[in-house]
Design goal:
about 160 residues; Immunoglobulin-like; 2 domains; 10 strands
Length: about 160
């Protein structure tokens, strides 16, 4: 029984077909070759354990007249598992999300959630007042409020005599 083009392209079987056994030279990479049925072209099987790497926390950063505001979803992360470091020009957020129960690979149908360590360094567009910064978490949303330093603000100093 001959399989369809899609079945052969997806590599759903170990059968070899003449049209897919030939090496194809790609125009994007001169001299490089690619086999359509190579392990790189196939997605990882569902029952493989995920590779443990550090994730990058997605964030939203915006500003108001007086503040820079950073928001990030940290659902499933306890506040004591978060580490936020603030400098005048940068914010670093680190944490860890632990899987509460262990499920073996073959028992999963879909596995898309990220478990493990994550971090994010955010270069700020303007200097901020580190001492007045605040952070809160509600319903899995971390909000960091960073008051801007007003460089144009001037203060007059009086000279004391004596």
């Amino acid at each position: 029984m001959k399989r369809s083009f899609f079945e052969r392209l997806a590599g759903s079987s170990t059968d070899n077909f003449d049209s897919f056994d030939e090496e194809v030279t790609t125009s994007a990479h001169k001299g490089s070759t690619m086999r359509p049925n190579s392990p790189v072209a196939r997605p990882a099987p569902l029952n493989d354990e995920p590779v443990q790497t550090e994730g990058q926390l997605p964030v939203d950063v915006h500003q108001t007249a007086g503040d820079i505001i950073i928001r990030a979803f940290v659902a499933g992360v306890r506040p004591d598992e978060l580490n936020i470091s603030i400098r005048r020009d940068m914010v670093e957020i680190e944490g860890s999300r632990s899987e509460r129960e262990q499920v073996s690979g073959p028992d999963y149908f879909t596995r898309e959630l990220f478990w493990g360590s994550f971090s994010r360094s955010i270069l700020l567009p303007q200097e901020i007042d580190v001492e007045a910064a605040s952070a809160s978490a509600k319903d899995g949303l971390l909000t960091i409020i960073l008051p801007k330093l007003d460089k144009a603000k001037q203060t007059k100093l009086r000279v004391k005599v004596g």
